[in-house]
Queue: 2 jobs
Job 1
Amino acid sequence: MQDDSKKSWQEPLLKCLFDMAKVVFTALVVGGCVILSFDAPINPDLIYKEIIGIIATVIFVIAACYINK
């Protein structure tokens, strides 16, 4: 009985965490790479956003994998 109740909240939470990882990666990391590809001077704030995006993506994926165990 307990396995059913655990799976009932676990699957939507996993989907949400993976979707958040995809959104963060797309918005911060890919978006930042597109901006860096232009011939504009490199702004340190942009580098910080790239780093935060990578870290947040990794955290969301690790949390989802931990919950999936």
Note: The chain has a mean pLDDT of 83.
Job 2
Amino acid sequence: MPTAKKKKISSKKTISKKTQGKKVTTKKASSQRKKKNSWAFFEKKIINLPIVKKEERTLLIITFLIFCLTLIIFWEIRKPQTVIVVMPPEAAANNQEKNNDITKIGAPVYWYSFGDSFTSSARLNTEQTDMYLEDSVAAFMFPPQYDFVFRDCVNCQLAENNISLLNKSDYRNDLASMPSPLPIELEGKEILAAKIDNLTEKKIASFVVRDGSEERAFVYFLNGNNYEPLITNKTEEKIITKYGRQGGIVTAGGSDDNFIILYSGYEGSAYHYLAGKLYDISKFFSIRVMNEGFMPYIIKQGEGNETIWYVLSQEEGKNRLVKLWQNGGRHIKGSVDLSLPLSQQLAGRTITAFASSDEGDIDFLTTLDGREEVLTFYDKGFDNNKVRQVVSKNINTKNYPVYKAIIKSLGVCLIEDEDISYHTSFPNDQIDIYIGDSMSNFKKIVPKSEVSFSGNNHELYFRLVFYPTSENINYSPWLDNINDLAYLVSF
């Protein structure tokens, strides 16, 4: 019996050695798997709990990754940053010559840029600004002055040149009246609209064609059966949309040697034809002014430098009254949209016709519940009997000390009889331009010239002061942007 017992024990020892060998091998393999699959270990031990569903497990994994990414970003932003000095070319040149060179400021510096197209008054000091901001054209001007007066009438009659809105003819389709052959530029193109407009003696033929997803306009003098190009795909001046919205129409109005060509659609595009040359005036017809487009009618009142223009709508229910003026010069220098005041006066009445009466007056024939009335618009120019200004809020929102500033782009129209879009000759007795690092420290400047500050203040303002001309009530400046005001700060 003892001998048998020893054998049994010996057998157990043998088995134990074999098992031990297997355990060693298993431990080595397990150790390698742990090193290679640490993420699997995390998933099995941490996430793969009985109470966690597959969807919840996925959410926990995503949350963990976001947490890791947040830590990385937080660590990076706490590192010291390298600051690169970026300067306009003009500033770089001036910095080499002036005593307050940016290298003497003794801190990292940076040029910030500010711009405002005045689509709202968000950046303006409304308490100190007393120029009139017209929302549709998004521009400042002297406050416009006008009256609307109703008068009752029986069998109301307007002037002989009145335009009836009761004519339901298709304003867009004069194609059948166009002499053949059509201009070669239109060959193979899909014509979406065609119109003939009468000036004093001359006629204007216009076409709107499809150009991919856009519309392109072709405009010609119609001389008998001949088409003389004004605006085509081959001329320097072009009319082509850019927002992919179709349904536009082209209208021309004025006298033979002084008229406006206007594309009216979702967006506006316009040219002033004067003495054989075209001038782009599209900036006066913004998307807000066009308001999804309308069938325009152009009225020209006065002659030469005293001309005033009005754009009305021939479409019932789309009331429009847009005024353009020339500031006593040859070129159009401003616009104001009076469509909202017109609609407010109408108070539900429908315009059935309109006519240009005495200079500065426009009569609208209206009806409401079968009752006719004439609404007369009296244009009284602008309230330009005092000095007015536009003042900004603090535009240095970073709250850094300011050392320099420069206005590189200013869109303002004044009295100027030159062929340019905006006024460029400064200084000028119609406007003073200031930049200040506080409301008590404004410095007078001219565009494209730097002004320097001590760096003791952390604010920046602009202030534009406009001066009237007492002899001309039809004068008003027109300011629609400060698109590039750069300022140097340190931090």
Note: Confidence is low (pLDDT under 50) at residues 1-30, 79-100.
